[in-house]
Design a protein that fits this description.
about 500 residues; alpha+beta; Uridine Diphospho-n-acetylenolpyruvylglucosamine Reductase, domain 2; Uridine Diphospho-n-acetylenolpyruvylglucosamine Reductase, domain 3; seven-stranded antiparallel sheet; five-stranded antiparallel sheet; binds flavin-adenine dinucleotide; oxidoreductase activity; FAD-bd_PCMH
């Protein structure tokens, strides 16, 4: 908390900054007005550059996703969010809401204006009958799974413990349990949300069903979500772990082709990655089975790879997830892009490996600080798409497209442009190749998951046929168009 004198000084320095940078005058002056107004509310206290809270509030897993907001704030009740919307309405400041900051696009959970950080929304509660769990949008998946572990229960959520519940539950939610129960967005029961018109409401299939479905992929397009209630499922010991493969990757590719050609086992999930640095690729295989032992033969070709090291064992779900944390250096910068793939054939898997290597050579030649290019293969079965309930992000059994995800990492901000461009080139080549091979479709026929897409992705490519009803709904609940003042895939 800043003292009244300190925040007045901060506003004064913000005002100086405004007059010093005419190009961003409008945005900055509306933000300065908003930060000043936030400071007049007793319960809300703005944080400014240089304070620990501000640095926390604007931080992201990838530093390339952060922007220097004029001030930040941590509301801790729906009423405070209502106040923030009325300040945004009065000042028309740019704003952003952040969960755990794992979005790999800037200006989506970051802004030059008013940064809203949701970390105070850390409540978590299991229902009396233990069939549902209410999670605050300031929690990460490690916290959620840790809370549920003593109850022998699980929810469909993130594969990495530090990812935010918020962004994943409002986008798609590829989970270790997706083959068994669907995407995370298919397993929400209700959401508490402050709409841009200031209404605080709980939406579900029975009340505000249009908003409830719009949130299943709609990210920040419909307001600020304070908590979500999720279906719980029983879980016992699981089997899984990761293997690193060095040298010749042919046997890893053979095993992936063989696994992908077999009928999918609902309890089993596989992720295979090419990790390329300056022209050399290694492999990473992550295997998961919801049960103490997988059926004989299912993962044997991976486990028996002669050039693999690592550990695969029976363990608790939380131990399995914690071991898979995707650590990032403090100066990490990253971006990614996905491509829809229907079948993981040998041709496309080999092509992804080749392109990861080729891109890593370009990264080494054209950037100062590029560190890694990864190419992710995630074979989900058609049944994973059978749980969809008409969500904003179209996914169904008629379009059971898996996601190739290509990630590039670096450290120097001067490399941002070139590495964003190379990531787009990498993705485009893989998508084109998949279309040529008959295992993907062109624009207009496939829809990209909002959480793995580049900021430049046209909104039609994400929401497709749903854009009409989403736009009508948005107009109804956002009469002052406050959502246009935050970034993202704006409908
Ligand atoms: C290391 C890593 C691992 C990942 N693993 C997976 C995975 O296994 N499966 C998967 O599907 N995805 C995964 N992702 C992608 C991830 O789901 C998305 O990046 C997700 O948006 C992150 O959520 P967040 O709350 O951390 O992000 P943030 O950057 O905080 O937010 C992302 C988006 O959600 C909006 N938002 C956040 N909070 C709210 C709120 N309360 N109300 C309204 N809008 C809000 C933001 O404005 C922004 O548009 C991973 C990402 C990383 C970096």
């Amino acid at each position: 908390m800043l003292s009244a004198r300190k925040w007045l000084l901060s506003i004064a320095s913000a005002a100086l900054l405004v007059s010093a940078t005419p190009a961003v005058d409008d945005r900055r002056s509306s933000a300065a007005a908003a930060c000043a107004r936030v400071g007049t509310k007793q319960e809300l206290s703005p944080a400014f550059a240089g304070s620990v809270q501000y640095e926390h509030d604007i931080s992201h897993w990838s530093n390339a996703s952060s922007l220097p907001s004029l001030c930040s704030v941590q509301p801790d009740s729906p009423q405070e969010i209502q106040q923030l919307f009325s300040i945004i309405k009065a000042t028309r400041t740019p704003w952003a809401v952040k969960g755990l900051g794992h979005c790999n696009n800037n200006n989506m959970s970051s802004t030059y204006g008013l940064q809203i950080d949701m970390s105070q929304f850390s409540q978590i509660a299991l229902s009396e009958d233990k069939k549902s769990l209410k999670v605050g949008t300031g929690l990460n998946w490690g916290q959620v799974y840790g809370y549920l572990a003593p109850h022998g229960l699980i929810v469909v959520g993130g594969r990495s413990p530090t990812v935010g519940a918020a962004g994943l539950l409002l986008s798609s939610g590829y989970a270790w349990l997706t083959n068994e129960y669907g995407f995370a967005i298919d397993n929400t029961l209700s959401a508490d949300i402050v709409l841009p018109n200031g209404t605080f409401t709980t939406v579900s299939e029975n009340h505000g069903a249009d908003i409830f479905r719009a949130l299943q992929g709609g990210l920040n397009n419909f307001g600020i979500v304070t908590s979500l209630t999720l279906k719980t499922f029983p879980i016992g010991q699981v089997w899984g772990g990761s293997l690193q493969v060095t040298g010749d990757l042919t046997a890893m590719i053979d095993a992936t082709v063989e696994y992908s050609a077999k009928p999918s086992v609902p309890q089993a999930t596989l992720a295979v990655e090419f990790l390329a640095v300056n022209g050399t690729a290694t492999g990473l295989i992550i295997m998961f089975y919801d049960g103490p032992t997988p059926p004989p033969g299912l993962f044997d070709a991976f486990v028996n790879l002669p050039n693999a090291t690592g550990s695969v064992k029976t363990q608790s779900f939380i131990d399995f997830v914690q071991a898979g944390e995707v650590a990032a250096a403090p100066n990490n910068r990253a971006t990614w892009y996905s491509a829809p793939i229907l079948n993981w054939t040998r041709e496309i898997i080999e092509y992804i490996g080749e392109q990861a290597v080729e891109t890593s050579i370009k990264v080494a030649q054209q950037s100062k600080s590029g560190t890694l290019v990864s190419g992710n293969i995630e074979p989900f079965g058609t049944q994973a798409y059978s749980f969809s309930r008409g969500s904003a992000w179209p996914h169904d059994t008629a379009h059971p497209y898996n996601t190739f995800n290509g990630l590039v990492m670096w450290t120097d901000p001067q490399d941002d442009k070139i590495l964003f461009d190379l990531t787009i080139e990498y993705h485009t080549k893989i998508w084109q190749k998949a279309i040529e091979l008959g295992i993907s479709r062109p624009k207009g026929e496939v829809f990209f998951p909002p959480n793995y897409s580049q900021g430049i992705t046209p909104v039609e490519q994400i929401y497709g046929p749903n854009l009409g009803w989403l736009r009508t709904l948005k107009k109804k609940i956002d009469p002052w168009n406050l959502i246009s003042l935050t970034g993202g895939f704006k409908i």
